[in-house]
Design goal:
With 263 residues, the protein is mainly beta. It has three domains: 4-78 and 166-170, SH3 Domains (SH3 type barrels, Roll); 82-155, no CATH class; 173-261, OB fold (Dihydrolipoamide Acetyltransferase, E2P) (Beta Barrel), CATH 2.40.50. It has three helices and 19 strands.
Amino acid sequence: MSLNYPLKVSSLVLASLALFFSFCCAEDLPFSGEINADNINLRADATTTAAVLSVLDKGERLEVILEQYEWYKVRLPKSLALYIKKSLATCIKYTESQPAAPTTLSIKQCVSAKVLGERVNIRSKPSESAPIVGVADRNEIVNVISELGDWYKIEPIQNSFGWVHKRFINKASVLTSAQTLKPAQDEESNILLVGTVKPYGVVFMRSATHKLLTADNQIFLLKGNRSTLNALNHQKVKVIGKIISATGAKYPIIEVKIIEVVS
């Protein structure tokens, strides 16, 4: 047996342990970030030459999911409009606008569409040459804002991202104090929150499997029936529950008592 064999095995074990702890113990990401200056560029890639997707102002909040060198990868805000080719999606829900005059026909407008293909590109502009900022899966539902030629103008999907230089994002404070939560509490110290359910990942020693992202990008962790939470992934819900995490926890953990879809 080669003398180098034990050394190789030890190196492999150490590398495996490092990989394990990087996944199970890295609690820094994702986090809710806050823009700390005005007129900050949200870009399509982690470089100052990448296309500008939007200009952010001080105080705006974003979910930071990845750190790469001097940049943060963030989920795109709902205020940003993206585009998908009409040929790659089919409209599944319409709304009718009221006619301007009794003799005018009502106009149907698509408000929801279902993605037809696998890994369909979501772009920043209605052009095949525009930057790809997201990828949609088959049967994923997208919210349609309007139609523009061969394109649907849509709200950002879950898998749509941009980049902001690290120096322009601070970690946002998390809503944890009893005083702040008092307006949403009931007699049994439960709180009421409204937000979107998202997966948090099943990792060793992690007490919650899902998270709730509120409209102002605050993050709460949800502890409850996993099957129920899985069924509600990416849906807007109302949650009634109790904070069971220690005061000052990075993300408050909510023990879910009642959860229901908000229409």
